[in-house]
């Protein structure tokens, strides 16, 4: 109802017909599952969604991260951005995580707040830590940022063959990749030592240190699950534990499935972080029915090539569970959808009003200036008077009239004017291009804002609708003498010329008090 009354703040998302999920997991240990999903699972879910008028979409960044993104250290940022998009547009589940025995890749931050970086360097110098010069070489200060920060330079800017994909430079490219692996390991070690020591000295907060130690997978889970208000219903977890995968395993083969140090010993710190992630963060923040758990025996073979009977059975059950859990989550989301049915007229009207509010919000974001005009409009709206003329704002194309009116629409409630607002930016939607549709939708919106049943207009001609529109304005004024009805109508020239709309006969010359 707040949207119908013209409120422009905290607007709900326009209802979507897309079920868009972000698939999160470590990569090398989940090849088998990622291979089977497009073959056995996604086609069935696409069919299921199509039968319900929905579109099924999957974002799997492990297949789509380019060398350019790696070169510029944008992997984490790109993943987080995609997760936010999924949460925003999906009308069903939006985040699916697959957890295994690997905590995963733990990069160091590509951007560090200025004072924090300088604290790390100061501690490194005081403690005479190795590689502090290397960190200063790879991070450059950005004084234009507010607050100032230090950014990790692109790999290619320092190692010129790293991103050279030509065949003749294959050896040099391989050498540069080895160099970067060594450099990144040394930078990571220095930063972690520095922040630990800075924390012990009281120079940094423990919470600020987390980003130097957590994995990309945990970052994704924080964004997709822990920061989501509807996380219990919109997230799914498939937790696979490989048994017998210990320090006694043949670690050269097991390295894809568990975190190892440079010396090929198990990385216990990463394993502890993984345990905390699974037990304390995921399982305590997700609906129990949205979790599937599997115990799979480690046999020394990668799951995607294994013909072990238990492994094949696991992949079959995993596929069935994925389909079943997704279908249940989609059905539940549809049942809990409290939005208006989109195929009814009231549903279309709600979406129409929301469209104009969203469009105006977008147009007004970069608006500035025009203070004299805004004050004149504010004075016009706040004056108490009898019948009066409409206020007309006109100007050449490109003057910024739409941005101005959009800004005013967002200001009226802040001006403490008791009002219902009707906003139409003509020509920006199907229902705002024809004056007959426009007047019909405005009449219904005003009646709904009055909490009255809208009149039936099935057999109306244009003359009937114009008279009803004028009467609706009078009725609002009579029933709400202490409140204003504000109509903001933009870009009349974008209306079709049907019903001689450009002659403005549909708008009363005098408006009611």
UniProtKB/TrEMBL annotation:
Which residue numbers delimit the DUF4062 domain? 20-106
Where would one find coiled-coil regions in this protein?
Answer: 270-297
| Organism domain of life | Eukaryota
Q: Which InterPro entries match?
A: AAA_16, DUF4062, NACHT-WD_repeat, P-loop_NTPase
Instruction: Describe the location of the Orc1-like AAA ATPase domain by residue ranges.
Output: 367-509
> Which keywords fit this entry according to its UniProt record?
Coiled coil
Protein name, entry field = DUF4062 domain-containing protein
